[in-house]
Structures are given as C-alpha cells and as structure tokens.
Amino acid sequence: MARRRQIYEGKAKILYEGPEPGTLIQYFKDDATAFNAQKKGTISGKGVLNNRISEHIFTLLGGIGIPTHFLRRLNMREQLIRQVEIVPIEVVVRNVVAGSLSKRIGVEEGQQLPRTIIEYYYKDDALGDPMVSDEHILCFGWASQEELHDMADMAIRVNDYLSGLFAGIGIRLVDFKLEFGRIWENEFSRVILADEISPDGCRLWDMASGEKLDKDRFRRDLGGEVEAYQEVARRLGLLPEDGDTPVLDLDSHRKLRGK
Q: Cellular component per GO (predicted)?
C-alpha cells in the first residue's frame, strides 16, 4: 500500500494529500500546546473528540449557509476537506472578558462584554501571532477589503449561531478563534471557513458553575482535560450519557446505539 504524502503538520493536526484533486485529509492529533507552543503535552483521545465535535459544528454551520472546507468525516481521527489557501489571519470573537483580553485591559475575567469584539491576529509563530488591525491587514495584503468584510460577517453569524447552540446545553461561549481559506474558481477567489471549531480553540464555561470545559484546563494546569472535552461532546449529543464509554470507542458505541 502506497504511503500517503504529508502536506503539512501543525500543532494539533496533520494534512495529507487527498484522494481527489482539490482535497486533503485532515488528521487530528492528541498533542496539546499552549502559549505559542512554549507548553507542550498530550491529551489522550483529544483528536477523536475534536474530530467529532468539529464535524458536528461545521455540518450545522453549513446548514445555515456558512461555506466551509469540511466535506465528510472519514474515520475517528480524519476528515476529508477542501484544499484552501489559508488566509494568514486568525479571527478571534470575544463575548466575555477572558484570557489575554483580561490581561491587556486589566479587567477581571468573566465580565460580559456590552458588545461582541472581533480581533485579528497575524499567523506567525516566530512573532507570537501578534494582534493586528484591519489597516495592517490591508496594508500588507494579507487579505483584501472584501475578504475582510466577508470574514467579519461570517464570524458574527457563527457567533450568533454557536452562542445559541451552546446556551441551549448550558454552556457559555466566552470566545473562540476562526481561520479562513481561499478557494479559487477560475480567476476569482472567495473565503470559506477552515481549520476546526472545538474546545481547542473555544473558551466554553459551564453556565451554572463556571467550570472551564476547554483547553484552558491544560493551559492552567487544572487537570481533567479529557473529561471536559467529553462533557462538551456529551452535551452536544455525540457521546452517551452514561459516561462509561472509552474515548477511543466512540464510533463503535454510536453504531451500538443506532446513531
């Protein structure tokens, strides 16, 4: 059997050449990083959970007209996705003061923002992914005005939808990051949602207790990372309620339950 050609390896995922032109296979790793990869570790089964959670969310977003790179899940750790030209900008949507925003403005975590904030970060590990303005983005040609408008518009739509989705299962969507990619159609391109949406890139707090159900448990040495990710999957209906299913048996357990 021929070995698949690796296209790219990031902190949490590996991209392989897809079976058809214009496609890639996205593999979710268990590796965990924080603080621009200064802290590294492993969360056993994280890749399986993030694959399922991201598949679920991207499918729902596609249903409301958000264009994404997601095509279908292949197995427990892999998805088939469209090949895109990644826009080198991370779009961060904030609903509640937390993380770096709390440190920058000296406001205690947990304060509800009077309006949603959208921030842009230039994707460059060597520079620590610095925050940039739309003027920087346009000046250096990282994205066009039309692309920037489309990304901001999609970010707000995603936020509105996910805020309601998570609120319905008792989770507060504090903030999250999005990445976008260009797809080309003849001489024209458009931006679509790419990467993943999972507890790796979202801050998710239990509405009743304030318990963190995301990667902050790893960043802050709180422990219980796997249980937190499982809890998110469980509330989304992707895991059984009995809590006894091993992380690595998700697919077989879903078949047994007829899902």
A: cytosol
